[in-house]
Amino acid sequence: xxxxxxxxxxxxxxxxxxxxxxxxxxxxxxxxxxxxxxxxxxxxxxxxxxxxxxxxxxxxxxxxxxxxxxxxxxxxxxxxxxxxxxxxxxxxxxxxxxxxxxxxxxxxxxxxxxxxxxxxxxxxxxxxxxxxxxxxxxxxxxxxxxxxxxxxxxxxxxxxxxxxxxxxxxxxxxxxxxxxxxxxxxxxxxxxxxxxxxxxxxxxxxxxxxxxxxxxxxxxxxxxxxxxxxxxxxxxxxxxxxxxxxxxxxxxxxxxxxxxxxxxxxxxxxxxxxxxxxxxxxxxxxxxxxxxxxxxxxxxxxxxxxxxxxxxxxxx
Length: 316
Prior knowledge:
Blueprint: H1 2-7, H2 11-26, H3 35-41, H4 46-58, H5 66-95, H6 105-112, H7 117-127, H8 130-134, H9 136-139, H10 146-155, H11 162-181, H12 183-189, H13 193-205, H14 210-215, H15 217-242, H16 248-252, H17 263-270, H18 278-306
Helix pairs in contact: 2-13, 4-11, 4-13, 5-6, 5-10, 5-15, 6-15, 6-18, 7-13, 7-18, 11-12, 15-18, 17-18
C-alpha cells in the first residue's frame, strides 16, 4: 500500500483522503461514536492534527536560517495573504453577497484564502529542501477559520476575533522555541511530519461529501478555475523571477484544503447576512478540494519532470 501511494504525486495525502471521503459520503455516521474514535477519524481531529504537524515541522526552523525561510516561503505567503485581502474586497464590493455566476462572496472568500498544507507537505517532501519542509508551519496559519474570518470581515466591514488568530500561531511558536533550545528535540519531533501526513489526509477527507461536491456542478468548477487564476500566475511569477526559485512551492500553496469545507457554515454563524449562501458554498468548496487535490500534484509532477527538478529519495 505504501509503495502504491508513493507512486502517486501527493499520494500519502490523496489516497487516504479519497478513502475517507468515500466513507464520509456513503457512511457518514460510521465513526461518529464519540470518544477517541470520533476524535481520530472525523473532522473533530482537524485542529489537533494540524497543530501537531505545525509543531513538529516548526522544530526544523533553525533561527539561524530563518532569514532564508522568510525570504522565500514567508514572502510568498505574504503575497498570497495580500491577494486574498485585495481580491476578496474587490469581489465583495463589485458583486455584493450574492456574487456572480453562482459564486457568492462567501464561497469566493473561503476558496481563495484556502491553502492545503498536506499538498504543500507532499510536494515539498518530494521536491523541496529541509528548509522548505521546516516552513510547513507557516502554512498552518492560513488553515484555521480565523484567516477567512479576518479576510471576509474586512471585505464586508465586520468585526473580527483576534484570539482565533493567536490560537493558530501558538503551536508554531512553541515548536520554534523547543527546536532551537534543544536540537535533539528537533531530531525527535521533525521526523514525525511525514508519517502523520496520511492521518491528516484521512481527517481532511472526512469533511468531503463527494455527492454534494458533484451536485455543485459547473459553479464548483468555475470557483476552482477562479481560484487558480487568482492565486497561481502572480505567485508563480514572483517565485520564479523575483525570488529566482524553481516554482515548485507555488504549486504547494495553490490547492484548496479539505479542512475548508465546513468554513462557509462557520462563517455563516458569525455573518448571518450570508447564511443563505452557506450550503451552496460548502458544496462548491468540496468540489474545489477534489479538483485541486488531484490536479495540483499531477501538474506539479509534470512541471518538475519538464524542468528536471530531481525528486527526493523516498522514505523506506
